[in-house]
Amino acid sequence: MGLATVAYQRGEFDTALQHLTEGIPLCRQFVYSPPLATGLAIMAWIRQTRGDTGGALEAIGQAEAAAGSGVTVPLNPVPVLRARLQLVQGDLAAASRWTTERGLSPGEEPEYLHEQEYLVLARVLLAQDQPRQVLPLLRRLHAAAVTQGRNGSVIEIQMLLALAQAASGDVSSAVATLADALTMACPQGYVRVFTDEGAPMAVLFGRLIAAQRAHQGPARSVPLGYLGRLARSFEDATAATPRNAAEAKPIVSRLVDPLTEREQQVLRLLAVGEPNQQIAKELVVSLDTVKKHVSHILGKLGAGSRTEATARARELGLLP
After folding, report:
1. Beta carbons of 194 and 187 less than 8 angstroms apart
2. 3-state secondary structure at position 149
3. How many other CB atoms sit within 10 Å of the CB of residue 3?
4. Residue 185, class by beta-carbon neighbours within 10 Å (0-12 exposed, 13-18 middle, 19+ buried)?
5. CA 114 to CA 125: how far, in whole Å?
6. How far apart are alpha carbons 18 and 42 in whole angstroms?
7. Is 69's pLDDT higher than 60?
8. Quick count: other Cβ atoms within 10 Å of Cβ 243?
9. CB-CB contact of 42 with 78 (8 Å)
10. How does pLDDT run across 189-246, given as a tens digit for each residue?
11. Of 41, 29, 31, 58, nearest to 1 (Cα)?
12. DSSP per residue over 90-112, as a string?
């Protein structure tokens, strides 16, 4: 179940499903139920990302049943995950009702045990267009997570803080906050913590990419390949929710200056290892022309060699 959680967070759904297929039957043998409930909840989120909303609700229902049996534990993640699933599926009323039933208020000082509940409250308030209520709450949660060295929480809270800043109209601060979260998230390969926020995060991520293209971006230390993985994840999510396509779809194409048709031809030949002389022969151009094309390709991809350019092009989906 732990490996499935990591694979899901990295957007590696097939690997996550493999671990779940092996792990869920094993967990059913235990009296201790949290691992089974967690695995079923991950299954629900994978189904949701693939557009199977009914299957997602079925899996989260099984997770609730599992969490309600066996040994009782103080940290039951399933109610929080169901509320988040309701938000993703557009049932804001149900998620808001849950926060009210839990007695959550943005003016409180949440303890660590209730952090995830308050992050659901923050998401509900953002969905209700109340970002100014969210900002103080998120700043308190962020300070506590930083002090306690909980990097996973820091990344998630900072990402939500960026959304709240954007919703408040402070886009430049939002982009900078998101860039800091990406810098921290990159080494561990976090993907879904960003993508699962849907269209608002996709739009903000697109603004960060636009700032990078204008050489004003604060995330220049974030590897292009990681940004490419995130961009493709947003576009895959868009395919599952077509209503958001106009806002989120073009992110990958904005990561780099577009390659011309001729540069794309040269890139494909570079990828199969053709030397410049052979490329010139196949395209019926001079050797100097090929060298100029190669130089432009390296510059646009931010690569220092042909091999690196090919690798980055594949990361960005420009090559099969």
Report:
1. no
2. coil
3. 14
4. buried
5. 17
6. 12
7. no
8. 9
9. no
10. 999 999 999 989 998 998 888 777 666 567 677 877 788 889 888 887 766 554 444 4
11. 41
12. T-HHHHHHHHHHTT--TTS---G
Q: Rounded to 5 degrees, what are φ and ψ at 204?
A: -65, -40
Count Cβ atoms within 10 A of the Cβ of residue 130 and give its class: 0-12 exposed, 13-18 middle, 19 or more buried. middle
Q: How far is CA 197 from CA 158, 159, 162, 194, in A?
A: 13, 9, 12, 6
Does the model's pTM come out above 0.85?
Answer: no
Amino acid type, 292 = K
Q: How far apart are CA 269 and CA 262, in angstroms?
A: 11
CATH 1.10.10.10 for domain 261-315 = yes
Q: Is 317 exposed, middle or buried (0-12, 13-18, 19+ CB in 10 A)?
A: middle
Please say whether the beta carbons of 237 and 252 come within 8 A.
no
Highest mean pLDDT among 31-45, 71-85, 243-257: 31-45
Average pLDDT over residues 38-50: 93
Q: Please, what is the Cα angle at 83 between 80 and 88, to 5 degrees?
A: 125
Query: How do residues 148-201 score in pLDDT, each as one tens digit?
Result: 999 999 999 999 999 999 999 999 999 999 999 999 999 999 999 999 999 899
Q: Which DSSP string corresponds to 6-56?
A: HHHHTT-HHHHHHHHHHHHHHHTT-S--HHHHHHHHHHHHHHHHTT-HHHH
pLDDT for 250 beyond 60: no
pLDDT at 240: 55
- Domain extents for the chain? 1-89, 112-252, 261-315
pLDDT in tens, 103-119: 999 999 888 889 999 99
Q: Is pLDDT of 276 > 80? A: yes
